[in-house]
Amino acid sequence: MTPARPPSHEQMTADLLRPLLRTTWRFFLLAAVCTAPVLAGLVAWATQAYYGFGVTGLGWPVYWGFYITSFVFWIGISHAGTLISAILRLVDAGWRRPVTRCAEAITAFSLIIGAMFPLIHLGRPWLAFWLAPYPSERMLWPNFRSPLVWDFFAINTYLTGSLLFLALPMIPDFATVRDNSTGVRRRIYGVLALGWRGSSAQWHRLETAMAIMAIAIVPVAVSVHTIVSFDFSMAPVPMWQSTIFGPYFVAGAIFSGIAGLIIAMALLRRFLHLEAYLLPLHFDNLGRLLLVMSLLWAYFVFNERLVTYYGNEPSDMAVFWRTQRLSFAPLYWTMVTCNFLVPLVLLGVRRFRTISGCVTASVAVVVGMWLERFLIIVPSLGHKFLPYSHGSYRPTPIEIVIAFSTFAAMALLYVLFTKLVPIISIWEMKAGATADTVRS
Amino acid sequence: MSAIYGLYPDAAAAQAAVDGLRAAGVAGPDITVLTSFPMDGCRFFDDGSDDRVRRRMWTMAGGGGLTGLTAAFALSWVAETSWPLSVGGLPVFAWWPNLIIMFELTMLGAMLATVVTLVVGARLGRRVTLYDPEVSRGHILVGIERPDRDRIAALTRALAAPAGARLGGNAGA
């Protein structure tokens, strides 16, 4: 699995700085391909802001559709990075080194994208500041007993923590870029490096800070998706008021997050030629983790379904059968196939757990988890307790374009990030290689 | 000359340079060792400061957490009592939901305090007086800032002694 001769320190520096120091036409092409859907999404959002919510499929009784689905989905994807990276740091897993920054970047960008959706969903995004608790002349404070306000605090805490968790270990690498470049780039990275020189005292403080951050960020990450689940479980809506929703959402978030991370790593490996750093071993380890999360996800779904079935409460059962046998059944069984059957076969059978197998399973999981969020939201809202509140939802092109454009936005942010920051931590790789040499 | 230093190809040579400087009467905290990655297996010198620093950073993080907790309590108290709304039969100041806000701001306070402690303690953002870009290319720098004029010759000898040493004087990034 591992190459006989790992790259030397000089080779590591050269390989990992190459994407920053050399720009080819492929970069501009890729950036343009990603930018086009983002622009389309912005135009769609502007159209919605101008004409109002009438251009969407949202309306009585389904007021949460593609936007809240995407919100929950992206917040879930964000669990790829900081949480996994923090856990791997805390257990000192040596194989984490090439993975952590790829993962932490996913967290930062998917949180930013996820946090956009409540603003898009507001209809009047320019009034978003009303959500912030500040003493205004209206003397009206946000309702602190609302899960939506808990979201505001949780997501902002997680976003701040994740950005810091991503940024701190970048400082020594900025110093490396500074020392290996000239002109304006040297001046810019000189500022970003904050005068880093790599003294023993600086390293010790950085590693202690990362340990504290890792310990602090794990419970915050768990709390974020638990609180997102509270948006649903605190509401008297069929199949929503469930005590299992907190851990169910957290498990689903980590599940989709790992899938997102595997896809990102495979693309980076291919396009940035990082075959010597992102090894089959990393995909194998993450593939196993994805398989475990797939089984955990299936366990939660089984629990949720079985308890609802035994409860036999009419309103719950109406939603239950809508998803399993009636109008939403095709989506439901696609979700089960994508989230359970495909990973079970591709990741459970050792022969199939190759890089291609892991990526295929991950793509299926991303699709399946988006469907899962959709199936939690729409069937329940469209079939509440009394017949007068029954209805349907059909997304309009505006919603579809906006939801699709966020995938392009994620790709664009990632492409730009790899252009500005070494996507694999150079100093951590060197430290790991030295530690391996000492051990051997 | 505001600094003298040597560049070494490996940790053993750097350790020899540090030992030479210690033998020449230089105190551990006055010796600067710069590396391009943390060399956990190497103890160039141990003055016991690592534990002190670790304790201080944890204490500061705890202090930041307490500050966040206090701020969250004050914010939720002021917000809820300033405009008392009756929601779902909950009390105006409801502990269970407020615990969520308090938890989040406690952790935020701890994380921000950690970063501030790092920036201040690691002297980030300040002018660098002793540095050489060769450190980024894998060399280990051992040096002394503002050495005594009369001892420069002895210190230079100590720095030059290990195999593969390259001497330099005064650099800034």
Question: What does this protein look like?
Answer:
The complex is a heterodimer of chains A (440) and B (173). Chain A has helices at residues 9-21, 25-51, 66-77, 82-90, 100-122, 147-167, 170-179, 183-192, 200-233, 245-271, 280-311, 314-324, 329-348, 355-381, 397-420, 426-439. Chain A has 440 residues and is mainly α. Chain B has helices at residues 11-23, 49-82, 95-121, 152-160, and strands at 3-8, 31-34, 140-145, 166-169. The model of chain B has no long low-confidence stretch (mean pLDDT 86). The interface between A and B is large, with 63 and 62 residues.
Characterize this entry briefly.
With 440 residues, chain A is mainly α. Chain A has helices at 9-21, 25-51, 66-77, 82-90, 100-122, 147-167, 170-179, 183-192, 200-233, 245-271, 280-311, 314-324, 329-348, 355-381, 397-420, 426-439. Chain A has one domain: Up-down Bundle (Formate dehydrogenase/DMSO reductase fold).
